[in-house]
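Appendix B. Raw example, untouched.
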Amino acid sequence: MSRHEIDGSFTALPYRKMAEAALARAQDFHVQHADFRFERIRSQSVRVRDGRLQGANDAEDVGFSVRVVLNGAWGFASGVTLGQTSAVQVAETAIRAAQVAAAMTSRPVQLAPEPAYGDVTWVSAYDVDPLSVPLQDKVDLLSGWSARLLDAPSVAHSSATLQQVVENKFYTDLAGTTTTQQRVRLQPEVEAFGTHERTGVFDSMRTIAPPVGRGWEYLVDGHDWDAELAELPSQLEEKLTASSVKQDVYDLVIHPSNLWLTIHESIGHATELDRALGYEANYAGTSFATVDQLGKLQYGSPVMNVTGDRTVEHGLATVGYDDEGVAAQSWDIIKDGVLVGYQLDRSMAQMMPELNDGRSNGCAYADSPGHIPIQRMANVSLQPAADGPSTDELISQVERGIYVVGDKSWSIDMQRYNFQFTGQRFYLIENGRLAGMLRDVAYQATTTEFWSSMEAVGGPETWELGGAFNCGKAQPGQVASVSHGCPTALFRGVNVLNATSEAGA
C-alpha cells in the first residue's frame, strides 16, 4: 500500500458540506437511493520528437454529480460550481430527471446490496507523484531517450511520450458509505522509425514497457529502460530487412506484451455483463458469451484460468472502492476453460443474483465528474501455471512456429468473436529455436478456437501486467485505464495472415 495520504489540496475542497446538502435534498423526495461524487482529475502529457520538445499539456477537471433512484428510475446531474447551493440545485435536477424517466422505465432499477463501510480512505501504491516532478526533468529524460535513438544509423526519426494522471474521488451515499481515494498512473512510450534504403520498406519499433499504476519511480528505476532502448535500433533494422511471412497455420508462442490485448478484446469486453445481456450494444457491440452459457461455455482449454481483479498492486483498474461504494474484489471469470463469471456493477448484479453471492464485484466507474458511472472492466488476467515452463521452454516445444512480442493493430467483430491481431515483432521458430525475424504477421481466429488451442501457459516468472490507458465504452463515450496480466503462452495451429497482402499493398 502507498505511504501517501490524500493530497491536502483536495481534502481542502468543500465537497463534504456539498454532499450533505445534496443528499439531504434528495431525501426530501423519499428516493430509494442517492449518492454524491466529487472528483478532481489532474493530467499532464509530454511529447518529444527527434530529441526536441513537441508539446506539453496540463489539464485539471473538477466537478461533482448526484445520482438517485426514484420511482424505480435513474436520475443523474452534474455541476462544476462549488458550494452548497449549487449542490442542492444539481440534486433537484437529478430528481427531475428521475421523475421524467420513471414514465419510460419498463424495468424498475434495483441495486444489489452492499455493506456500509463508514468513512474510509484509499491511496494507490506509488512512491513519487509524477505531477510533483519539474517539467524540465521530464523533457530532459524523454529528449535524451529520443536523441539516443537518432544516433543509430537505422533510425530516421524517434518519438517519446509520457502521459500522467492523478485522480482524486470522494463518494458518499445515503446507505452509510463514504470513500476518499487517490490514484496515480502513467504511460511512457518510445518509438523508433526507419526506412530500408533498397526496398523502401518503412516501419517502426516501440518499447513494450506497459502503462502502470505507479509514480515517477517507474521512469527512474522501475524498468530497465537502458536495456530496452539499447535494443530498439537493432530490432528495427532487423525488422526492415526481415522476410515477409507466408500465410499458413503456425504454432504461436505469445509474450505477455502482446497477449494482454487479445485478453482485453476477446475476454475482458466479452465478459462484461451489460454486453452479455444486450444492454451495451451501440458502442463496440454486445457479446457472444451470453448468460445462458454460464457454467457451460468451453471458452478455452483446461489450462485457461482467468480472473477479474480490482486489487492487484499497480493495476490501472485497481481501486479501494468503485464508484458505487463497492469494495474492490478478485473473482473467477473462466475456470479450467469454462465461463463461470462476469464483471458486474450493482444494477447488473441485481439482474443475476446467482452471481457473486448477489453482490456487485466492484466494476462501476465514471471517467469524469460529468459522466454517470457505468459498468467498466476490471484488471482481467490470465493466470500462470504454478510450476509452468519458462518462455524458452515453451519455444523449445515448437518445431515450426512464430514468437510474438509487443502489441500493435487489431480488429474484432461486434460479438467479440472473430478477430485478428498484429504485433511489434515476430520471430520464426524452427526446431525449438528462434530463427530470425519476420514481417507482416497477423494471427486470426475466433475467440473460442484461439483459447482452446492454448496448450500451455508459462510459470509465474513469465507473468507480466500489461494494459491500456484508453479503453472506450458507452454513449456518450467514456475512457478508462485497465491492466491485464498474463504469462507467456503456447498456442497450437493458429491461422496466420500476411497483413500486407491482406491490405492489398
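End of appendix B.
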